[in-house]
Amino acid sequence: MLRLPQFLALLLLIPSSSFFFPRSAFPHLPPILSSTSSPINEMEAWLASNDVATAAAKHTETATFRGLILLSTPTATQSPLITLPKKLALSTTSTQNWDVDLATQLLTEICLGSTSSLSGYVSLLSSGAYGSSSTPLSSTLDSFKIPESCNSEPLPNWTAPNSLRHWTPEERSYLVEACGSRGQRALDASVKQLRSWIELTGSPSSNISSTFDIKDNRVLWFVWAMEAVHSRAFMGIAGVENSGAVTAALVAQGLGLVSGCAGVGFDEFPLVVVGGVAFAVGLGFNVFKGLVNPKEVLMLPYIDSANHDESSQNAIEYNPLKQEFELVCKGDQTPDSELFISYGERSPVDLLINFGIVKGGKAGRETDRRIMVDMLQK
């Protein structure tokens, strides 16, 4: 039976700070694509073919970040910058295997390649590395197999390249040396998460500590998809004015995972107890205003290209009458600036594991990991 990955019950107290970093000099990081790269062009063409207006924001990838650049400001107060029909979103209900459902959907679309109804989106996420299979993936993972056309493809760039699961042994050692038990607990949580994903494929995981240890291309593809899901999936919360104001306790209650939420340290590292097992509800759930379905979790093409800034007032809202998602600009924005959204209140461990940034940082920016560690000590 599939189980939501079980995370260590831990607290990691890391002080907040806001800062920007130059691109890391570490050679193992994936290359940065230019703004004229084929995946971006395919994404823009796909959006246009589905009547999604792109006049307000465009995709860009430079030497310092990947995300959306604002081209124009709204003509009316709180009018949407971006609208996305619900039919273009990947979705599942927030059952215990919500992340596996979304990951297998994503991999299926990647394997379909140009014949996928989400071809532009999967091309952007997979750096253009997709197949041409008509065979859907197993949603149960009891006999999890990636079609050969997809399995033979080289692994795409990681969607969260600075998350702890990708740190080299030297970088991980530096984290522990510099931050002591706090750094060790973060690494332990990252390893437990990674191993739980690998075990879902039926592969052994006891000797796995990072993605560098994974030799099976099939497993790497699945981990790649789970990373994309955990850094991009959204769920709806009713009555929330700003997605950044959503608390971990509210997310837990919205998921319906517990009737009486037994929380521990919600301010720093949100935990709930389900069936006697403590796990982190904050990991993997970003939030938007309004409900599609009280337990529906979605991946939102175009909108989810906007990077995270917890202080951003911009919000994602769902319009049930039009059955579309809207990215609404609620703060001062200027053309040619980067467009941010808040993915909600995230714990320091969540940011390190799923985004590769520290509290107060902005997701999507390539960061020097040694500078990150130095900042964690302050």
**Biggest sheet: strands side by side, in what order?**
1-2-13-10
The stretches of 5 or more residues where confidence is low (pLDDT under 50) are 1-37, 132-144, 237-285
Sheet/helix structural class: alpha+beta
Largest sheet: 4 strands, mixed
The number of helical runs is: 10
What is the CATH topology descriptor? set domain protein methyltransferase, domain 1
Q: Based on the coordinates given, report the CATH architecture.
A: Alpha-Beta Complex
Average residue pLDDT: 68
Number of strands: 13
Estimate percent helicity.
Answer: 25-40%
- Sheet-strand content, in percent, reads 5-15%
User: Helix-strand pattern, N to C?
Assistant: HEEEEHHHHHHEHEEEEEEEEHH
Describe the structure.
This protein is an alpha+beta fold. The protein has one domain (38-376): set domain protein methyltransferase, domain 1. Helix content is 29%, strand content 14%. The chain contains ten helices and 13 strands. The chain has a four-stranded mixed beta sheet with strand order 1-2-13-10, with no helix packed on it. Strands 4-9-5-8 form a four-stranded mixed beta sheet, covered by helices on one side. A hairpin with a 2-residue loop joins strand 6 (272-274) and strand 7 (277-279). Helix 1 runs antiparallel to helix 3, helix 5 (169-179) runs antiparallel to helix 6 and helix 5 (169-179) packs parallel to helix 10 (369-376).
